[in-house]
């Protein structure tokens, strides 16, 4: 007989009591979808009528008449993204005859479709003739809208430059087939950015068409620059526009396969209304300002500058069939400008990777006169949108600083002056577009804890306040800036603004356009704008690491050996680093005895932790990917 002890009721342990509810809640949380509030669509469209769509034609006629009388052009620098959008809207509404546009990228996001709607209104209400030429590489256009514009809007013509398989949205296979058959031709792109109204009002610079170029994106926005020129006569501008419009690579939208299929199958809508282009009220304020004479005068015309001379420089469209080219019209013109320097060259380029020819140019400039100061403003890794190009820049930084003697600044994603640079506060509070909800919590960098306190910060926990107050409260990510301006000032008198980056792609492959302006006052204004970006509050200074006996010499030796290995650079430790100015200290130069006391070494990739994907990718590409340098 087996004796069994009596059974007593077992007390449930606290662990068992809480384990099941905890697991259940985790499962429910994991399966549930986060609900993020988004912008509501407009309900009443009746307010979008005249005088909403009226421009300021009288103001522009007055400016043009003055230019005709003097025979000289006027120029206005456009640094602020949202203002640059408002000006484009104003010019569309003020047009009397025609609008001609060339751009590398025209996104079908909220800004892209808003601008399209304004162009449709100008065409249908006032009979304005419109030409749009857009490069095809990153175009992902709605065939429904393009078909409507192609078949139901006489006077609106759209062409695509160098398209793949004559499709609006070619498949990956079609893109690969194109690249395989004609690698160089596929990689050669129309990089021009030009916006011309009535033949004599022209904007050129670095801006494409999308939310990011006009301060309308929660997350990354481009710190870009355009110039508006008011011309007494067309000159070379008509030649530039006609050459590209009539080129064999410019394919009418009606010949794109999806568009022709839509038209043949009668899928084209008979009518599209404002709701199809801009269903959100985001641009209401911009729309009102764009028709306000007082605001246009105060924001733009009061800052215009009559200039001594204006010269358009542009590559010929044949560059795409000849690529890679040894030199092009724009690169030759800029080379001559730099070569003419006698005291200073100030350069701003989002991507700074010098070809062998460009390195020889700066070597020559330094050897002719070591006193010529060359300052470069470009992106930090945390700010850039193109880490492979930054990786090449990072690899060659020693050459730029030591061999070429360049002074280098790298732009911060959250510069101290961001409130002056963009519509920052709007983006902190704005509800996201439905297309932006995927960004929730995707912060790309660490917020600098030395930034000054931002609006409404309580004294209790400044570090936490700095982070929270710079986040969009709905998406929990900071709006930030990535430098995209392409500009140059030589000897305080000659200026360039355009589409040309200082990288091999602009040299060898892409067509580029820009304007050379000779004028002291205009150049002073442009120089001031660049140097504001390239200043301690907005950028990191790049300099040599603090010297350590024996170790520094060995590190430099390994760097030099590693540099000589073709297409491979295994040595990981750079002799240079990024510096942030300490609070309350003077920005002394690297030669000054107080340099290392006044400046803090923040490493090669400030704002990115050691395991950040961007940093790891950059280091790997720097070591192994330099055979791709000609394509960057």
């Amino acid at each position: 007989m087996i004796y069994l002890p009596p059974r007593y009721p077992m007390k449930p342990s606290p662990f068992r009591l809480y384990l099941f509810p905890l697991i259940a809640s985790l499962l429910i949380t994991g399966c549930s979808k986060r609900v993020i509030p988004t912008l509501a669509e407009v309900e009443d469209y009746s307010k979008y009528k005249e005088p909403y769509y009226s421009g300021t034609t009288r103001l522009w006629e007055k400016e043009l008449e003055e230019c005709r009388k003097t025979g000289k052009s006027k120029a206005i620098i456009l640094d602020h993204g949202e203002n640059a959008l408002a000006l484009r809207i104003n010019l569309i509404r003020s047009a009397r005859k025609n609008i001609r546009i060339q751009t590398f990228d025209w996104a079908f996001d909220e800004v892209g479709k808003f601008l399209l709607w304004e162009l449709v209104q100008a065409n249908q209400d006032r009979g304005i003739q419109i030409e749009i030429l857009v490069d095809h590489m990153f175009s992902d256009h709605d065939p429904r809208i393009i078909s409507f514009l192609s078949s139901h809007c006489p006077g609106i013509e759209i062409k695509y430059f160098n398209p793949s398989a004559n499709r609006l949205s070619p498949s990956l296979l079609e893109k690969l087939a194109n690249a395989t058959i004609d690698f160089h031709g596929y990689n050669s792109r129309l990089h021009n950015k030009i916006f011309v109204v009535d033949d004599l009002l022209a904007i050129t610079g670095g801006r494409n068409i999308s939310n990011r170029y006009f301060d309308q994106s929660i997350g990354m926005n481009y710190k870009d620059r355009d110039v508006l020129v008011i011309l007494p006569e067309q000159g070379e501008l008509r030649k530039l526009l006609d050459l590209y419009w009539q080129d064999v690579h410019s394919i009418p939208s009606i010949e794109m396969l999806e568009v022709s299929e839509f038209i043949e199958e009668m899928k084209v809508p008979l009518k599209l209304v404002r709701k199809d282009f801009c269903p959100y009220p985001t641009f209401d304020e911009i729309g009102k300002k764009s028709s306000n004479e007082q605001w246009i005068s105060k924001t733009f015309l009061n800052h215009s500058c009559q200039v001594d001379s204006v010269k358009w420089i542009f590559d010929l469209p044949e560059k795409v069939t000849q690529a890679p080219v040894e030199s092009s019209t724009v690169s030759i013109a800029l080379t001559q400008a730099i070569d003419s320097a006698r005291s200073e060259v100030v350069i701003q380029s989002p991507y700074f990777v010098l070809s062998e020819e460009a390195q020889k140019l700066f070597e020559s400039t330094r050897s002719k006169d070591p006193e010529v100061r060359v300052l470069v403003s470009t992106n930090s890794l945390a700010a850039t949108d193109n880490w492979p190009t930054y990786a090449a820049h990072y690899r060659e930084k020693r050459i730029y600083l030591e061999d070429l003697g360049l002074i280098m600044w790298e732009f911060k994603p959250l510069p101290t002056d961001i409130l002056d640079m963009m519509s920052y506060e709007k983006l902190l509070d704005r509800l996201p577009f439905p297309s932006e909800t995927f960004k929730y919590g995707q912060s790309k960098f660490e917020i600098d804890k030395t930034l000054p306190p931002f609006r409404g910060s309580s004294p209790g926990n400044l570090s936490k306040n700095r982070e929270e107050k710079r986040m969009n409260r709905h998406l929990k990510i900071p709006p930030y800036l990535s430098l995209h301006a392409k500009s140059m000032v030589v000897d305080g008198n000659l200026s360039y603004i355009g589409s040309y980056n200082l990288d091999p792609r602009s040299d060898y492959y892409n067509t580029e356009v820009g304007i050379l302006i000779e004028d002291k006052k205009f150049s002073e204004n442009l120089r001031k704008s660049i140097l504001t970006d390239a200043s301690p509050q907005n950028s990191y200074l790049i300099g040599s690491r603090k010297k350590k006996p024996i170790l520094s010499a060995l590190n430099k030796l390994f760097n030099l050996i590693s540099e000589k290995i073709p297409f491979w650079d295994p040595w990981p430790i750079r002799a240079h680093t990024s510096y942030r100015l300490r609070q309350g200290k003077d920005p002394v130069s690297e030669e000054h005895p107080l340099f290392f006391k006044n400046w803090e070494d923040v490493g090669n990739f400030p704002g990115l932790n050691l395991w950040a994907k961007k940093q790891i990718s950059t280091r790997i590409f720097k070591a192994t990917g330099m055979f791709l340098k000609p394509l960057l």
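The two ends are 88 Å apart (CA to CA). The first strand starts at residue 74 and ends at 78.
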